[in-house]
Amino acid sequence: MEVGFLGLGIMGKAMSMNLLRNGFKVTVWNRTLSKCDELVEHGASIGETPAAVVKKCKYTIAMLSDPSAALSVVFDQDGVLEQISDGKGYIDMSTVDADTSSKISEAITSKNGYFLEAPVSGSKKPAEDGQLVILAAGEKALYDEAIPAFNIMGKKSFFLGQVGNGAKMKLVVNMIMGSMMNAFSEGLVLADRSGLNPHALLDVLDLGAIANPMFRMKGPTMIQNSYSPAFPLKHQQKDMRLALALGDENAVSMPVAAAANEAFKKARSVGLGDLDFSAVYETVKVVEHSS
Ligand SMILES: NC(=O)C1=CN([C@@H]2O[C@H](COP(=O)(O)OP(=O)(O)OC[C@H]3O[C@@H](n4cnc5c(N)ncnc54)[C@H](OP(=O)(O)O)[C@@H]3O)[C@@H](O)[C@H]2O)C=CC1
Ligand SMILES: O=CC(=O)O
């Protein structure tokens, strides 16, 4: 099966590599075309533009940074829309808001194409290990067709109904994750300033009711001030911003998420946006110093 893949960042590279390793023929495109080279070494073909990829493939997957990138790849010159047609599918796995997803869905379906949004939960390592959680919504027939690919990229796929539901579920999850990361950072700073060993705090947390893979994985590297990007902080802040907008629409008060968003914004403003989202810890430390 020939599958298209647009966007070879941290996630897209790992996901498309898994498809290749598991017998899919994959045609890739990335805005910075040189990032296609490693995939080509593993057997991928290159499409010169998103339109060229869609022309060649029955369905095409996208994994792009944010709403503006997702819209640009579909609507701009040489974009997806130029070649989408009867029976072709487009699956956007980027984390975007429901409005963005709906705009793309309407454009694709107006050309008789099929659309599925399918954002994922899980970071660089789960993407490399084919252990993502896939939150799909939209055209059920395309979901069924994509299951063999989803089973390679993920450990579990959910079909959540109409377009927008996948995007909303992803934003709710990441709003919780971003708030937790801030609480965790504050806890590490509080332990340290109170004269406690932060490693002991990690051990205690890991044995109690709030043990979780994020604290387990990020805690040791945060203590070492090491923030090699798995999930870039600028994307986590984008997700907080979009989740807060969803809260506005639904009149849901989210003071904890709003405070966490401010911390991520602060981290971006001091140049930490391309580091892992756990680098918000650096900002929390500074705030604590100045108070
Ligand atoms: N990293 C993670 O842990 C997770 C990320 N996500 C979500 O997945 C998506 C991708 O994340 P990730 O791979 O980490 O991000 P990266 O920043 O590593 O990659 C972003 C990708 O988007 C492309 N891109 C950015 N702007 C444009 C544009 N205007 N036009 C075309 N392409 C563009 C980049 O191209 P170029 O190489 O040219 O810059 C690159 O391929 C995001 O929505 C993120 O929120 C979801 C779950 C986990
Ligand atoms: O979106 C990020 C993740 O870890 O999931």
TrEMBL record:
Keyword vocabulary terms for this entry: NAD, NADP, Oxidoreductase, Stress response
Catalysed reactions, as listed in the record: 4-hydroxybutanoate + NADP(+) = succinate semialdehyde + NADPH + H(+); glycolate + NADP(+) = glyoxylate + NADPH + H(+)
Pfam families xrefs: NAD_binding_11 (PF14833), NAD_binding_2 (PF03446)
Active site: 170
InterPro entries (UniProt xref): 3-OH-isobutyrate_DH-rel_CS, 6-PGluconate_DH-like_C_sf, 6PGD_dom2, 6PGDH_NADP-bd, HIBADH-like_NADP-bd, HIBADH-related, HIBADH-related_NP60_sf, NAD(P)-bd_dom_sf
Domain 3-hydroxyisobutyrate dehydrogenase-like NAD-binding: 164-282
One GO term describing the cellular component: cytosol
Residue span(s) of domain 6-phosphogluconate dehydrogenase NADP-binding: 2-161
GO molecular function: glyoxylate reductase (NADPH) activity; NAD binding; NADP binding
Role, per record: Catalyzes the NADPH-dependent reduction of glyoxylate to glycolate as well as succinic semialdehyde (SSA) to gamma-hydroxybutyrate in vitro. May function in redox homeostasis and play a role in oxidative stress tolerance by detoxifying glyoxylate and SSA generated in glycolate metabolism and GABA metabolism, respectively.
Family of the protein in this entry: Belongs to the HIBADH-related family. NP60 subfamily.
Protein name per Swiss-Prot or TrEMBL: Glyoxylate/succinic semialdehyde reductase 1
Protein source organism: Liquidambar formosana (Formosan gum)
